[in-house]
């Protein structure tokens, strides 16, 4: 996977890399169908690709919200996606004890934004030897993320990615400070812009997070313009009926057009 990190930072096509997939693994057929579609698009556009899917959702507004189909079942689906399409896979972990379990099935361990300061979790992820993607907390400055990088590197793992997903703005909105992308790149790691979670509208009175998916392309264009190494986009063939975070996901049918536009932005600025 270290060679893959080198590849995504220095891709021959000059393109950004992409982390994309459903918010949560809802079932095998759905995951394979989404992966097949995205792989066909990224192969065509020469975009390095990592399939994303959460095997379990721990951070939910309501206790009745969908959390997953079962840990082992979902992780085996992620493993199958990686094997069948020959792509790396990434999933969230939430507690230190999950690191080794998830690492047996995926290539990249993702630390959720609300947990990015959890030292034991970061060290446990680092000790698996997998790539560790740390999402910047909505409550942190970009500069503060150097400490997350240091914790992982000091644990013996230099395979780190940082992902921005906006900053808290009031109680129910997020904003993106694009100055943070080059600041985090100064730590010597690839930096990704999460174009979907940065458009969430959390803490709604309904208990279901809202979003503004119509602005995904806007967020992504700006990120590419300031030099983001990669993009994170959650996508689904039917966002309105997705079991998690449908309000801010990109419709799968719009992905190719979106990426093609972003490649043109990339070509204009490099």
Describe the structure in your own words.
- Strands 1-2-3-4-5-6-9-12 form an 8-stranded parallel beta barrel, surrounded by 6 helices.
- α2 packs parallel to α3, α2 packs parallel to α9 and α5 crosses α6.
- It is 36% helix and 18% strand.
- It is built from 9 helices and 13 strands.
- The mean pLDDT is 91.
- It catalyses: D-arabinose 5-phosphate + phosphoenolpyruvate + H2O = 3-deoxy-alpha-D-manno-2-octulosonate-8-phosphate + phosphate.
Radius of gyration, in Å, reads 17 Å
Number of helices: 9
What does the main sheet amount to? 8 strands, parallel, barrel
Structural class: alpha/beta
What proportion of the residues is helical, as a percent range?
A: 25-40%
Global mean pLDDT:
91
Domain DAHP synthetase I/KDSA: 12-263
Pathway: Carbohydrate biosynthesis; 3-deoxy-D-manno-octulosonate biosynthesis; 3-deoxy-D-manno-octulosonate from D-ribulose 5-phosphate: step 2/3; Bacterial outer membrane biogenesis; lipopolysaccharide biosynthesis
Organism: Pedobacter punctiformis
Keywords: Cytoplasm, Transferase
Descriptors for this entry?
alpha/beta, globular, 3-deoxy-8-phosphooctulonate synthase, Aldolase_TIM
């Amino acid at each position: 996977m270290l060679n893959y990190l080198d590849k995504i930072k220095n891709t021959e096509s000059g393109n950004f890399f992409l982390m994309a997939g459903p918010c949560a693994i809802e079932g095998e057929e759905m995951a394979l169908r989404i992966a097949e579609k995205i792989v066909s698009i990224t192969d065509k556009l020469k975009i390095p690709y990592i399939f994303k899917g959460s095997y379990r959702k721990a951070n939910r507004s309501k206790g009745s919200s969908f959390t997953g189909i079962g840990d082992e079942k979902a992780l085996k689906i992620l493993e199958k996606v990686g094997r069948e399409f020959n792509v790396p896979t990434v999933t969230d972990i939430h507690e230190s004890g999950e690191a080794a379990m998830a690492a047996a099935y995926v290539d990249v361990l993702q630390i959720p934004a609300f947990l990015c300061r959890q030292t034991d979790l970061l060290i446990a992820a680092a000790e698996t030897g997998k790539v560790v993607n740390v999402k910047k907390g909505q409550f942190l400055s970009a500069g503060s993320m150097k400490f997350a990088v240091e914790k992982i590197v000091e644990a013996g793992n230099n395979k780190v990615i940082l992902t921005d997903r906006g900053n808290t703005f009031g109680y129910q909105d997020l904003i993106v400070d694009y100055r943070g992308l080059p600041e985090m790149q100064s730590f010597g790691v690839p930096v990704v812009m999460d174009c979907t979670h940065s458009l969430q509208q959390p803490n709604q009175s309904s208990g279901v997070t809202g979003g503004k998916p119509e602005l995904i392309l806007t967020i992504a264009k700006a990120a590419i313009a300031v030099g983001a190494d990669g993009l994170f986009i959650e996508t689904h063939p039917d966002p309105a009926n997705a079991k998690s975070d449908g309000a801010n996901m990109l419709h799968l049918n719009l992905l190719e057009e979106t990426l093609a536009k972003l490649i043109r932005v990339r070509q204009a600025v490099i």
